[in-house]
Design brief:
CATH topology of the largest domain: Rossmann fold
Strand order of the largest sheet: 2-1-3-4-5-6
Distance between the termini: 41 Å
Largest sheet: 6 strands, antiparallel
Shape: globular
Radius of gyration: 20 Å
CATH superfamily of the largest domain: HUPs
CATH architecture of the largest domain: 3-Layer(aba) Sandwich
Order of helices and strands: EEHEEEEHEHEHEHHEHHHEHHHHHH
Helix content: 40-55%
């Protein structure tokens, strides 16, 4: 049996021996598994419900000898959002390091997980400054890595080969993930806990403040998480790591979907239900802090634009990225 990630059943982690016993007795027992996993045994492969861990079979399926045998749909009880988040984080807190940017998503995960934290960014960048403030306020150990343009160049050369859609935004995010996971691996961690998925579940993007149909937008944004996950996990794999995402736990997703879409934004502030939960655990100024997107908060997007200008692409970062992808490097 081969397992990447981790498996739980009815809220309890399964050991390798327990897993094998269940699977050998009945391969379809995997249909009830929760967690984040790619699991292979005796001609069968199973992948977690939302496909957090990449693999050769569709998300949430059990494939045996080339044929679909079943779907993975863990049954979880309905619970308040606070309880769902706490359970989701606790299941992922046995190992790993938390990627901390100082926003509500990563700060809540870091506080509940009580794991070491990691932040990266250019010297003086928003994310490094906020991560230092947040980790200090929450009394959590945090390794803050000041990166240089040379690190961004290394990241660009690495990720441009593996990300499916090398747009400026995707590329900048991928480089950020590359540098975070590279640092995590150097610190001895394979699992990197992140706040991914919260914006798509709780209406965290600026467009939610003015949209007239937040429900449809939430559905659309959540559907786009599969592409984002492929991008981010492909990059994490370059460093022998994987991203663990508590907000994409089936319990949290269920709890979020029970909240009316119109309640996600209040007084011009998105992710209001999540922020209210977070404020019970972390300082309110952190819970309601409006942070920048990671590509801007780390300063990486601006370094990319500088690379493009220095190479004659003064108005087209996309043109520069296309050239890099075509030639295979040389940022």
């Amino acid at each position: 049996m081969e397992l990447k990630g981790w498996v739980e059943l009815d809220g309890s982690m399964l050991s390798s021996r327990e897993l094998l016993t269940l699977l050998m007795a009945d391969p379809l027992s995997a249909a009830r598994f929760g967690g984040e996993f790619l699991l292979s045994w005796d001609g069968c492969t199973a992948r977690d419900h939302f496909g957090i861990i990449p693999g050769p079979v569709p998300a949430g399926t059990i494939i045996c000898n080339g044929k679909e045998r079943g779907m993975i749909c863990p049954v979880v009880p309905a619970m308040p959002l606070e309880d769902a988040v706490m359970k989701a984080v606790s299941l992922r807190s046995t190992e790993g390091i938390c990627a901390l940017s100082g926003g509500v998503d990563s700060s809540l995960v870091a506080y509940l997980a009580k794991r070491p934290c990691l932040a990266v960014g250019l010297p003086g960048s928003h994310d490094l400054t906020q991560a230092r403030l947040a980790s200090g306020a929450m009394n959590l150990p945090c390794t803050c890595i000041e990166i240089a343009p040379e690190d961004v160049r290394d990241g660009l050369d690495a990720v441009i080969k593996v990300i499916p859609e090398p747009t400026p935004v995707n590329t900048a995010i991928a480089i950020t993930m590359y540098l975070i996971t590279r640092s995590a691996r150097k610190l001895g961690h394979e699992r990197v806990l992140t706040g991914q998925g919260a914006d798509e579940l709780f209406g965290g993007y600026a467009r939610y403040r003015t949209c007239t149909d937040p429900g449809s937008m939430l559905v659309r944004d959540f559907a786009g998480l599969a592409r984002q996950g492929l991008r981010d996990q492909s990059v994490a794999a370059l460093n022998g790591t994987y991203l663990s995402m508590p907000f994409l736990d089936v319990r949290v997703v269920r709890a979020a979907r029970l909240i009316p879409a119109r309640e996600m934004v209040r007084d011009g502030v998105g992710k209001w239900p999540l922020r209210e939960v977070a404020a019970r655990y972390i300082p309110r100024e952190i819970a309601f802090h409006r942070k920048k997107a990671m590509q801007y908060g780390t300063g990486i997007a601006e370094v990319l634009r500088t690379f493009a200008r220095d190479n004659g692409y003064k108005r087209s970062l996309q043109g520069y990225l296309d050239q890099i992808r075509t030639t295979g490097g040389g940022a």
